[in-house]
Amino acid sequence: MKKAHHKARASSPISPESAKRLSYFHERTGEIVQTIRQLVEVESPSDDKSAVDNLGSLLAGRFEKCGGHAKFHRAQGFGDHLQVDFAGKRGGKPVLLLGHLDTVYPLGTLATMPCRIADGRLWGPGALDMKSGIGLMLHAIEGLLTQHGDDLPRPLTILLVSDEEVGSDSSRRITENLARNSSAVLVLEPSYGLRGAVKTARKGVGEYTLKVTGTAAHSGLDFEKGESAILELAKQITAISKLVDIKRGLTLNVGLIRGGTRTNVIPAEATAALDVRIARKGDAAGIDRTLRSLKPFNRKCKLQITGCINRPPMERTRGVGTLYQTATEIARQLGWKLEEAAVGGGSDGNFTAALGIPTLDGLGGVGEGAHAIHESIVISELPRRAALLATLIEKV
Description:
The protein is α+β, with helices and mostly antiparallel strands. Helices cover 36% and strands 23% of the residues. The chain is built from eleven helices and 18 strands.
């Protein structure tokens, strides 16, 4: 029954209105690609304020040409966050389009990883995560203006932050404030996999540091007088690994360790950096409490734990599910079956979903290789992603 049902949905005819919209974006595929290429070639690493601000200024000009009102939120130590507001023909709360300007690649990456078009893809640093998503925002808005005239059919707010790749500390408050005044949040992060699934659940993220203090001593002359911080840390790491609960979606990864000074010195200090992921909001307090209650195996060593869960999970709430169903119906009318996925990585959509605002993530480009040398997007997928976004803006 399920297979027959899926075949029926996949072969459903495209509605005349959807066909017209899809045709519009197909005819402008080259323009969309050119926009994304321009954005990729403006490098914007998180830690380079002037570079990120350069991209923000370019985009502010593009959105203002579409009739938006652009303003910047100043950020200490990071690029300024760009907000663009469109009034729309009808009243009511706006829909929030959410994304980020920054990438993980250092300035100068284009020299060794140039933006190029080959094998039906656009390749380059940040092409997938997430300059294709920003390009889709621009062209979806232009498409709606072409259809509806000088104004969009409804109020719209865009927020492009400058620090998403490094934790969103300076932008979180802005994101949450705008979300509270929005009817829904559409996140233009990359889709999941080459099938282009949207993301209806994401894990929450935490970062902790465990510091062990022991006693230094000469490893040959005074071995018995030393208390090894590294040995204690090794035992703690083993204990931490036992806290992993895959079925609950709870994982802990010790990704970085430091300690010691020389091989002939019993180490007095050692530290471990932990990545914590949770699938359920209710697990945040429990894992935090467990980590803070760790006791030393060697009572002559001391433990210090710092950090927190800094990004709550995006859970598949009723609001998220309803928004996904709206998107699947739009996709069906455009001629394809839109799938959903739950993923381990976090985004700024985690913040908005945790507030109870209907949020749909992964509406950006389709491709692979985010944060890697083979980062790329599939060009043929761009028209229907743009059509999906434009119709969602109208309907949610």
